[in-house]
């Protein structure tokens, strides 16, 4: 298995990343994150992109740094 990226690493990523890469940063399996996205309770914001989803890196950084989401 690949080394889990640090928050510093994640901050350098492009604006969106794949679900498998985001799952690696979160320390969970890609299937778990895919399931959470499908259920609509993903801990990070995603964008549908064709038949797949991509994860918004800024929201991944927010989660990993312990920041809370602003009220909608």
Name the structural class.
alpha+beta
**Largest beta-sheet details:** 3 strands, antiparallel
Under CATH, the topology can be stated as: Arc Repressor Mutant, subunit A
How many helices? The count is: 4
Uncertain stretches of 5 or more adjacent residues: none
> What is the H/E order?
HEHHEEH
- CATH class identity: Mainly Alpha
Number of domains: 1
**Order of adjacent strands in the largest pleated sheet:** 1-3-2
Strand tally is 3
Computed Rg? 12 Å
- Helix percentage range: 40-55%
Report the β-strand fraction as a percent range.
15-25%
Q: How many angstroms does the end-to-end distance come to?
A: 37 Å
Averaged pLDDT: 92
Q: Provide the CATH architecture.
A: Orthogonal Bundle
Name the quaternary structure. Answer: single chain
């Amino acid at each position: 298995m690949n080394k889990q990226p640090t928050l510093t690493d994640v901050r350098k990523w492009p604006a969106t990343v794949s679900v498998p890469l985001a799952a690696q940063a979160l320390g969970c399996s890609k299937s778990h994150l895919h399931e959470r996205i499908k259920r609509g309770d993903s801990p990070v914001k995603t964008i549908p992109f064709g038949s797949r989803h991509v994860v918004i890196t800024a929201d991944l950084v927010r989660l990993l740094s312990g920041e809370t989401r602003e009220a909608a």
